[in-house]
Every structure is written in structure tokens, then in C-alpha cells.
């Protein structure tokens, strides 16, 4: 007798159970943002009382994971020439292992013995249960100075030391005016100064796009309702509050694409430089155009992917036929910083590069396998998402400062052009230096690089 | 009053995480104080005193208790009825692990003055009925498929409590349990994949019509 009927019956049973399971779902606030249960003054008092402890917890975590000392690389500055690039591997090893002994172990052994460096694991938000946007102090102070707009939270502060964030304000390079170089005049672009800085340089359409990117709109933590984290009724935030000067100031958030709250991983603000060559957008959503992304950020970066909450707090919906394209076209003229040692195809010019940099390029293209995804010729992108399967190295489901560490799943490839300008690294900022990224990929891809090869890779990345 | 203080100290001694202003990142992180119900007595700012749970805490206790109850009872059933040794072993482990978790949850519920459900809800009743009605040949598959769904839901429920709960002991319980539940889920998925593979190899070979070109 054929076994089909039995299989079919088993499947039928399974599907009946599945249908029954729908009868008793998780509560709605596992997906939707709950309404606050208390007035703002009560919540604010509690938040402020908790704040020292909250900040100490995160500080303890960072110190457990990283060497946070200020140790710059000699003669390596970010593109504006104002901030040095940090040196050395900062992720701490578990006792009893070296980077070489660790990379000689199998993923299974590392997982079973709990030896994956904690700094390679997902980095929690300062206050995971509350989440939301957190700006570095330089950004908060400058916005306050120029606009008298408050983007300071009463419940938490930015967590990473200043040496591990991009230079501020970052330079701005335009694809439409390579001859001008940095057009920022050393200033942070805001709604107050953009016009005088850009008149005569950009087109009317770009100017209007820029204005919209600098106009504050209500956001989950910065709005006029009781459900906010700014002391005053906030005017909101702008796109460039995080993407300062179209680069990044390392402001962070949580992914809008995951629920429940404890599982939402941290998001480090991505630079908008080179947007013209980037085909997919959002570390998880893989949106297919900068227009889609620009339009939808009003639901995601602004409101955590909760359109219901957005509606209540006053969402701004830019017009798709007129406003969104202007915002997109402005973003699409932001260039990478100059890389004088690269030729038009993204390869090192041997007459300009050092021996170590050239050796690093060879590792990058060969043994290091970096170029499999970070292809030099296409702005060090492959316009794909990849799953590094880091969970091979640790037991999933551990809770660290309120974040449940789960597999990251596929994440989009980020460009490496201008990479020295945009610490911290990875989508959540879990790695502080370029040397950290080399050790990370050496382990995750099983590369077995020598110290000389690792050093040359760092030297190479500084040229990009 | 003095008695209350003594009790509070005693409980605090047993589980420092519950009342602590702990700066250890491994201890339960503070919840969003926006979710603390008005009038909640607190042992630290935003940290509810014992018996002062919020709505997510109570929802969690109830759902986790029903799920835990079902895990043990259905595990016992499967330990008797399952044909495959691996499914029996899995079922025995479910009885063992979830009994331990249920005991801990029971203590926590008691401390917080919440009555635990002692009966199956509709969903689990339906699951039990299906298992009881399935033939011996169908049983293993039906049990394991049900277990995958159960553990998927439990993992999300635990994550919900870790993020939305306020009671530190309950959050701690959820954090402790989650890796085990994810481990169970992986085991059930592996067994299910093996059963599917076995079913495929046992399928009678059917002559495939020649492909047209």
C-alpha cells in the first residue's frame, strides 16, 4: 500500500494544529507600540532616577567587551583631517586564548567552550526596552546652538567614547562638483545655514530636497505627546540629525524590522556617501530605490516601523511625485571622500601605494576573500545581502543588557569606500576599529591570516 | 511593618536581581517605565515591588504556565506513544526541562500573588485531542510538528517578557529559559527534517514521465 495517505494525514494533523495555534496569539503589544500608562512627569522622574544605573550598565558592558583607550594610528586622519583613526584590535579575548589559537578552533568548539569574544556579539542599545534614537552630544549641542531645537533625551545618553565616532562635522563631497572638494565650510548643515552654503552650487530641485532633509518632523521619542523622551514638546528630528552632513555621526537606533522589542538589534547610522551606486537600502528591508527608502524612513527611522503610532504623533508623509524625488536627487549627488591612491577601477595605483598597502590589496582580493562581496569596481559593494551565520560560534538566546542575542540573518553589504571615516563598524556598530573588523572576518570566514596579512589589510583599508 | 521589612530583606537576599540597581549587564535590564501601571509600589525607580506586576508580566505568567503545563502532559503522552526512539527521548526531555521551569514559574507566580491556570486552554485542548486521535503511524510526526509551533511561540513569548515585563525576577526567568527553548526548537526541527527525509526515502519510486523538449 502506498504511504501517501499516511503522509497526507500527518500533514493534515500538523496543519490543524497550526490553525488551532492561531486561537491564542501573543498580546498586541508584542508587535505594536503600547500606549503609555502614566503621565509624562511620572515617567520622566522614573527615567531620570534610573539613568545613572542604566548608563553604568552599558559602560560596564563596553568595558567588558572592548579596550576603550584613545590610541590613534600615526599619520592616519579621517578625510576632513580633524580626527585621527583609532589603532589596534579593541575587542577583548576570553582568558586563555589568543587570536591565533581562537582562529585554529572550529566554530563548534568555540561555541561549546563559550570563547567567542563578547565584542563580536550583537551590541545592545543603551536601554533596550525603551529603544529609540540616541544622538551623540556634539550633534545635540550643535543643533541646540544653531536651531534652539532640543534632541537631548532625559532617560539616556550616547554610550560610545568620542574617539570611536566619525569626525564632526564631517566634510561633504559632491559628485556634481569634484573640483570644489569639501563644501561644508567646516559647518554642520542645518535648516538655518543650508541655503547660504549651497546657493550657486546645487540646483533648485536639489535645494528643495535638502530643505526637506533638514526640516524637523515628529518622531517616536521627539514629539508633542506624552509618549516622548525629550523634556519639552519637541519639534521633532530631521534626516540629517543622524546622517550629519550626509555622512553619519554614529547616532544609533534599533531595527524597525524585528519584533518583539527585546529582539530588535541596534542600528548604527549608515553614511549616505556613494548613495548613487547603492542598489539596495536598509540593512534588512532591501528596498530597491533611495526614493522608496526616503519615503518610508518617516515610518521606520522615525516610528520604528509602527505606522499606527506614527499616525497618532503626527507623521510627515512626503509627496511621492514631487518631494521624495527631490530628496532622493540631493542624496544621490553625495560623493565618497577622495581616494587619491585608487585608479578609476578601484584598484591601487602601484606608483602611489606603499608595499604594505599593495600587499593588503592582494590579501583583500585573494586569501581574505573580502572582494567577493566588496568588489572594488562597483564601489566595494555587491548590492546583495549575506548571512555570515555568526550563530555558529555562540549559543543563541542569551540576554545581554536587555537584548536577546539571536542570529543576525542576511544583512546588506556596506561599501568600504571612505571606511576609515565611519567607525564604529558593522550594522550595529559592534566593532570599534578596522583591525577589529579584520579579526572578525578572519574568524567568521576561517581565513587563517598571518599578522602581517592582517596589518596589510588595515593599511589597505585606510587608502579606500 | 518590621515583619514586612524582614521578609523584603529575606527575598532580596535570595534573589538580589529582583530589587537591585544592578549595573551588571547580565542582570535583568530596566523596563520602560512608561509601562509601569499607575500606583505601583516600587522597590527602586521603575522597579516594581513584589506583587506589583504589570500587564505584560501577568499575560506572560498565564501564557507561560499553560504552555508549560501542556509541554509536560503532552510530553508524557509522547513518551508512551512515540514509535521512534529520538521522539521518545525528546518527549522525555520536554517533561524533565519543562517540569523544572514550571516549578520555578509556580514559585514566582505565588510570590506575586497570581493564580496559575491548572487546565489546558482551547488551543492546547485541540492539540491534545489531535494527538490522541492520531494513529500510531501518524503520532510522531504530529507531536513533533506541534512541538515546533509550541516552541516558536514560547520563544517569542519569553522575548516579549524580557522586553515588556517589569518584574525583574520574571524577566530573569524568561532570560534563563530562552536559550533552552531555542535549543528545544532546534532539536524538534532536526527530528522533523529527519522524519521528512525518511518518509521521502520510503516513498515508492514512481516512474516519471519523460520530459518534453
Folded structure, characterized:
The complex is a heterodimer of chains A (464) and B (213). Helices cover 31% and strands 5% of the residues of chain A. Chain A starts with a helix and ends with a helix. Chain A has one domain (40-461). Chain A is mostly helical and 464 residues long. Chain B has 213 residues and is mostly helical. In chain B, a hairpin with a 2-residue loop joins strand 1 (42-44) and strand 2. Chain B is elongated. Chain B has a two-stranded antiparallel sheet with strand order 1-2. Residues 1-20 of chain B have low confidence and may be disordered. Helices cover 67% and strands 2% of the residues of chain B. Chain B has helices at 2-14, 55-81, 85-111, 122-133, 136-164, 168-202; strands spanning 42-44, 47-48. The chains are: A mainly alpha (464), B mainly alpha (213).
The helical percent of chain A reads: 25-40%
Largest sheet of chain A: 2 strands, antiparallel
Number of strands of chain B: 2
- Average pLDDT confidence of chain A is 94
Using the coordinates shown, work out and report the CATH topology of one domain in chain B. Ferritin
Keywords:
heterodimer; A: 464 residues; mainly alpha; two-stranded antiparallel sheet; two-stranded antiparallel ribbon; 14 helices; 5% strand; globular; B: 213 residues; Ferritin; 2 strands; 67% helix; 2% strand; elongated; disordered N terminus
Explain the layout of strands and helices.
The complex is a heterodimer of chains A (464) and B (213).
Chain A: H1 4-21, H2 40-65, E1 72-77, E2 84-86, H3 99-103, H4 107-113, H5 137-147, H6 194-198, H7 204-213, H8 239-242, E3 252-254, E4 266-268, H9 290-296, H10 307-313, H11 323-331, H12 355-365, E5 385-386, E6 399-400, E7 403-404, E8 411-412, H13 434-444, H14 451-461
Antiparallel strand pairs in A: 1-2, 3-4, 5-8, 6-7
Chain B: H1 2-14, E1 42-44, E2 47-48, H2 55-81, H3 85-111, H4 122-133, H5 136-164, H6 168-202
Antiparallel strand pairs in B: 1-2
Amino acid at each position: 500500500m502506498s504511504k501517501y495517505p499516511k503522509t497526507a494525514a500527518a500533514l493534515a494533523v500538523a496543519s490543524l494544529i497550526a490553525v488551532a495555534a492561531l486561537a491564542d496569539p501573543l498580546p498586541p503589544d508584542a508587535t505594536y507600540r503600547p500606549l503609555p500608562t502614566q503621565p509624562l512627569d511620572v515617567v520622566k522622574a522614573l527615567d531620570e532616577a534610573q539613568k545613572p544605573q542604566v548608563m553604568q550598565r552599558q559602560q560596564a558592558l563596553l568595558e567588558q567587551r572592548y579596550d576603550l583607550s584613545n590610541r590613534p594610528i600615526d599619520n592616519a586622519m579621517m578625510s576632513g583631517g580633524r580626527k585621527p583613526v583609532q589603532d589596534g584590535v579593541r575587542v577583548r579575548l576570553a582568558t586563555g586564548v589568543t587570536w591565533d589559537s581562537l582562529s585554529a578552533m572550529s566554530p563548534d568548539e568555540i561555541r561549546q567552550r563559550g570563547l567567542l569574544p563578547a565584542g563580536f556579539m550583537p551590541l545592545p542599545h543603551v536601554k533596550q526596552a525603551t529603544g529609540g534614537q540616541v544622538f551623540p552630544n556634539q550633534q545635540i549641542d550643535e543643533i541646540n546652538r544653531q536651531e534652539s531645537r532640543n534632541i537631548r533625551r532625559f532617560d539616556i545618553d550616547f554610550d560610545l567614547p568620542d574617539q570611536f565616532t566619525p569626525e564632526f562635522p564631517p566634510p561633504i563631497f559632491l559628485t556634481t562638483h569634484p573640483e570644489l572638494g569639501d563644501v561644508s565650510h567646516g559647518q554642520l548643515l542645518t535648516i538655518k545655514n543650508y541655503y547660504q552654503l549651497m546657493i550657486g552650487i546645487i540646483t533648485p530641485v536639489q535645494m528643495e530636497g535638502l530643505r526637506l532633509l533638514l526640516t524637523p518632523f515628529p518622531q517616536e521619542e521627539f514629539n508633542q505627546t506624552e509618549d516622548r523622551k525629550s523634556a519639552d514638546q519637541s519639534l521633532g528630528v530631521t534626516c540629517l540629525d543622524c546622517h550629519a552632513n550626509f555622512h553619519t555621526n554614529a547616532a544609533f537606533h534599533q531595527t524597525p524590522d524585528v519584533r518583539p522589542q527585546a529582539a530588535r538589534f541596534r542600528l548604527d547610522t549608515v553614511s549616505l556617501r556613494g548613495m548613487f551606486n547603492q542598489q539596495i537600502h536598509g540593512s534588512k528591508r532591501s528596498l530597491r530605490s533611495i526614493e522608496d527608502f526616503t519615503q518610508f524612513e518617516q515610518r521606520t527611522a522615525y516610528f520604528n516601523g509602527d505606522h499606527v503610532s506614527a499616525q497618532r504623533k503626527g507623521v510627515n508623509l512626503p509627496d511621492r511625485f514631487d518631494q521624495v524625488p527631490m530628496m532622493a536627487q540631493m542624496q544621490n549627488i553625495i560623493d565618497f571622500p577622495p581616494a587619491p591612491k585608487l585608479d578609476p577601477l578601484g584598484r591601487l595605483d602601484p606608483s602611489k601605494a606603499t608595499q604594505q598597502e599593495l600587499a593588503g590589496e592582494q590579501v583583500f582580493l585573494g586569501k581574505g576573500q573580502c572582494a567577493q562581496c566588496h568588489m572594488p569596481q562597483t564601489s566595494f559593494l555587491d548590492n546583495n545581502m549575506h548571512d555570515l551565520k555568526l550563530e555558529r560560534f555562540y549559543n543563541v538566546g542569551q540576554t545581554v543588557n536587555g537584548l536577546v542575542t539571536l542570529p543576525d540573518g542576511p544583512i546588506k553589504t556596506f561599501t568600504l569606500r571612505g571606511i576609515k571615516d565611519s567607525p564604529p563598524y558593522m550594522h550595529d556598530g559592534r566593532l570599534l576599529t578596522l583591525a577589529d573588523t579584520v579579526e572578525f572576518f578572519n574568524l567568521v570566514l576561517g581565513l587563517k591570516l598571518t599578522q602581517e596579512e592582517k596589518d596589510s589589510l588595515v593599511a589597505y583599508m585606510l587608502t579606500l | 511593618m518590621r515583619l514586612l521589612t524582614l521578609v523584603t530583606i529575606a527575598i532580596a537576599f535570595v534573589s538580589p536581581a529582583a530589587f537591585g540597581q544592578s549595573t551588571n549587564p547580565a542582570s535583568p535590564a530596566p523596563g520602560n517605565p512608561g509601562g509601569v501601571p499607575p500606583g505601583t509600589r516600587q522597590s527602586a525607580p521603575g522597579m516594581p515591588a513584589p506583587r506589583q506586576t504589570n500587564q505584560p508580566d501577568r499575560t506572560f505568567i498565564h501564557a507561560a504556565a499553560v504552555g508549560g503545563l501542556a509541554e509536560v502532559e503532552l510530553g508524557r503522552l509522547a513518551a508512551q506513544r512515540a514509535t521512534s526512539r529520538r521522539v521518545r527521548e525528546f518527549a522525555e526531555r520536554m517533561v524533565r526541562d519543562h517540569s523544572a521551569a514550571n516549578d520555578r514559574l509556580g514559585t514566582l507566580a505565588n510570590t506575586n500573588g497570581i493564580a496559575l491556570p491548572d487546565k489546558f486552554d482551547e488551543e492546547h485542548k485541540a492539540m491534545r485531542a489531535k494527538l490522541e486521535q492520531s494513529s500510531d503511524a501518524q503520532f510522531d510526526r504530529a507531536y513533533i510538528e506541534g512541538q515546533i509551533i509550541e516552541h516558536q511561540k514560547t520563544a517569542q513569548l519569553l522575548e516579549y517578557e524580557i522586553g515588556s515585563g517589569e518584574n525583574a525576577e520574571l524577566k530573569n526567568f524568561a532570560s534563563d529559559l530562552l536559550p533552552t527553548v531555542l535549543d528545544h526548537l532546534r532539536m524538534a526541527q532536526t527530528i522533523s527534517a529527519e522524519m521528512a527525509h525518511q518518509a521521502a526515502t520510503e516513498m515508492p519510486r514512481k516512474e516519471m514521465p519523460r520530459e518534453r523538449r
